[in-house]
Give the backbone structure.
Amino acid sequence: MEERPLVENYHAATAASRRFAEPIVFWDETLRDGEQMPGVHFSPEEKVRIATVLSDVGVQVIDAGIPVVSPDEAAAVRAVVGAGLRAKILASARTVPGDVDAVIRSGASHIAIFVAASEVHLRYKLKMTQDQVLQASLASVRQAKEAGLHVAFVTEDTVRAPFDFVERLYTSVMEAGADRLVVSDTVGIMTPLTFRWYLEEFARRVHPVDWSVHCHNDFGLAVANTLTALEVGVTTPHVCVNGLGERSGNASLEEVVVALESLYGIRTGLRTERLYELSRLVEEVSGIPVAANKALVGYNSFSHEAGIHTHGVLAHTLTYEPLQPEVVGRHRQMILGKHTGKAALVEKLKERGVATTDPLLLELLRRVKEGGEARGKGQLRSFLEEYRTLFEHPGLTDAEFWQMVGDAGIRVEAQ
Ligand code: MN
């Protein structure tokens, strides 16, 4: 008799509608977009530390930063380039000759040239016409190609721009030699189905060979939209460790990689068992705490406390876990507290070869529940108070700012 599988896998039923690129090339933005997150600043040494682990994990392209920003930033990009990593090092530039020059001087082999595409950006931010944007883009792409760089062309706010302009712009830069085209959902307004339509339309009009998406998480859809893009055949997803990035961040590296591997069975070639280590490193260096319930790398991702769940997982991990924690370099945790049940205690006592009677077990359970409740709350409250003070007002205080205004010699007239 044929045995039934323990769980059904319906992804197979939709496999025909997916066209994954081979290979998928991961482009990490932690050191650029991730650093643009309020309160985050990486020193050159810190950028090298993160880039080294990213490269060891198998990320193929690392955006090290925008060298024209400051001498410190240029030094950081040079330091990452000088680290001799296996990953390709990319640096970013606006469509301004000085920006492109700064990337050329940084030694990076790859450049991302970016300009905005939507009408609101052109009219209010750039104060440029579509033709001016096109001319500046072509000039920058040619400048970078002449210097021998691999050129990615990026528009900000692509998915809110007129499609005819997007088509004209991308077709032209491709003819001018751009190697890779990047479509950005800069303010995170796409949904998987709309994005699928958009990218298929983009492919039909522009015929990209090597293309990327840059998805933001304003509506919590960055990873879902990035997966959609990969299903359509996009080759090079932009990702950030821990989903760092402007506002609500970018698509999280670990979530995109592990979703591909575990849900679709794609071999990305990345060493997923080092993703937790990478996540902790970026948490520490960025100072941005990972949410306890963050997918895969959150503190609770593989923890069980509730009696029913613990009992299930102890009987078979597939009951309440979609993948083994070891896949991302972690271990399962059984939490002892208010929701603990008998099965967890029996299992825990086994660690020291202890067997006991039911009345004593129930007495122990009562004590564990009480103890867990008392402990968690008090500690967490005082921690949260400190956390809020730090995160509700990142950066300088108003008082510090006005002090600096005075120190800089700027006179403020009395109002
Ligand atoms: Mn961005």
